[in-house]
Write a structure and sequence with these properties.
The protein is α+β, with helices and mostly antiparallel strands and 430 residues long. Helices cover 34% and strands 18% of the residues. The longest helix is centred in the middle third of the chain and has 18 residues.
Length: 430
């Protein structure tokens, strides 16, 4: 919960290759993290809920009033279209859920497909989705990729459902959550950064406050402060309450770089500010730190693109590749895959940044082994398998003695492999 509160929200993506996106965000920050922790907070304690922020996201439930605008807009749209055209089916769904409790799409008989968004869809699925988009239904639980819905009034307390901040206030809160999550966003950037906030200009379809106006509101209110970053074009924004952290980081970096400049001419081969304490994190593809690819290039000299939806022949790095963060340095990429049949965490590929030599960095190798072991335990598999290539030989040798599960099945790292307790990992990443 501390991580979610700090970041504002976690993007949800159903792909489960090395773990779902939100699980990977938390795994890089919470020692002993297991997916059951978030599932319990979502579906049992209901301290978290799913709604749209930057795409489908996981949010603190107490912030529900500031994210209900999408529900209200979608309800108005569907009441004028889908709920009228499919009134009998909507009544059937609501009647059955009221009488029987949470249901999934498969609990109702399928009907002939209809056009729904970008593809033909079973109208039962379409109306479940529409009722959830409108906030009439909420997600009661997930079983794999199957979603079970219940009435929103059963899932969320009345005081949260009835509270409606002004639309401008809701949009301002969403925009602030974007800056809270990333930490150094500017005034502009790729469109996907701002999904769900506000358009950059008014149009025939939108006459509300623009994103620039909402940003000015946040600056004038003292919630955000403008900063300049050496080597990065344009003004960047940070939470005003975190300016002290920025000042401290600037002092530490200046002292560190002055001490190291004579020993290493290449940034990628320098160690982090405190190598002994720096952890290694495999960042999720939609991790807030990786939202703005432009600043990754200009500030960290790291070029990252998530290639999962890119045709294989056009990929540079691989299908589900994660950035490797060591303290405050991006040092490479890793493509892990959970192979349940082999009871293994398979590492399909590791690629290092130019000039970075992992075996020459003992502190890195120790932290890298710890990150692999944490991922293995999270995946609940018995071993870690590296590629059988000449290029991996040096890495394999450096991990021997540091990673007991390398190539062979390991015993559970703790008695509570499936437990729900965890603590923050303050040494790993931002």
């Amino acid at each position: 919960m501390a991580v979610v509160e700090r970041l504002g929200s976690l993007q949800f993506d159903p792909l489960d290759i090395a773990g779902r996106n939100h699980d990977l965000v938390l795994l890089s920050r919470v020692t002993g993290y297991r997916r059951a922790m978030t599932d319990a907070l979502l579906y049992e304690e209901r301290r978290l809920f799913e709604a749209y922020n930057k795409g489908l996201s996981i949010l603190p439930t107490h912030e529900l009033p500031w994210f209900r605008q999408t529900w209200d807009e979608e309800r108005l749209r569907h009441e004028g279209e889908a709920f009228v055209e499919h009134a009998d089916l909507v009544a059937e769904i609501l009647g059955r859920i009221t009488a029987e409790g949470p249901l999934s799409v498969t609990d109702l008989e399928a009907r002939p497909p209809i056009d729904w968004y970008w593809r033909p869809t079973n109208p039962v699925r379409a109306m479940f989705e529409a009722l959830a988009e409108a906030g009439v239904l909420g997600l009661a639980r997930r079983q794999g990729n199957r979603r079970y819905y219940d009435l929103a009034e059963r899932l969320f307390p009345e005081e949260l459902r009835s509270r409606r901040p002004e639309p401008r206030e809701q949009r301002r809160h969403r925009l602030l959550s974007r800056y809270r999550g990333h930490g150094l966003l500017g005034r502009s950037g790729p469109g996907e950064l701002w999904n769900g906030t506000a358009p950059s200009a008014r149009s025939a379809r939108y006459d509300g406050p623009t994103r620039g106006e909402l940003l000015d509101d946040l600056v004038e209110a003292g919630a955000l402060a403008a900063v300049a970053v050496d080597g990065v074009r344009g003004e960047r924004m940070v939470l005003a309450e975190e300016l002290g952290l920025l000042d401290a980081a600037e002092r530490d970096a200046a002292e560190h770089d002055a001490a190291q400049s004579a020993r290493s001419g290449h940034l990628a081969n320098r160690s982090p500010l405190d190598p002994a304490a720096a952890g290694v994190a495999f960042l999720a593809p939609l991790d807030p730190l990786a939202w703005d690819r432009d600043i990754l290039r200009s500030l960290f000299d790291f070029d990252y693109r998530w290639e999962v939806y890119i045709p294989e022949r056009k990929r540079t790095w691989g299908y589900y590749v994660l950035p490797i963060l060591w303290g405050d340095r991006f040092v490479g990429r890793i493509e892990p895959r959970v192979d349940r049949e082999a009871d293994a965490l398979r590492v399909l590929r590791v690629a290092w940044e130019p000039g970075f030599d992992p075996p020459a960095q003992p502190a890195f190798m120790t932290a890298f082994a710890e990150a692999l072991e944490a991922h293995r335990a999270f995946a609940d598999v018995g071993r870690v398998l590296l590629p059988r290539t000449a290029a991996s030989a040096a890495l394999r040798g450096a991990l021997q003695g540091r990673l007991p599960a390398l190539g062979r099945r390991a015993r559970p790292s703790t008695p509570e492999r499936h437990g729900r307790s965890g603590r923050r990992r303050p040494a790993v990443g931002p």
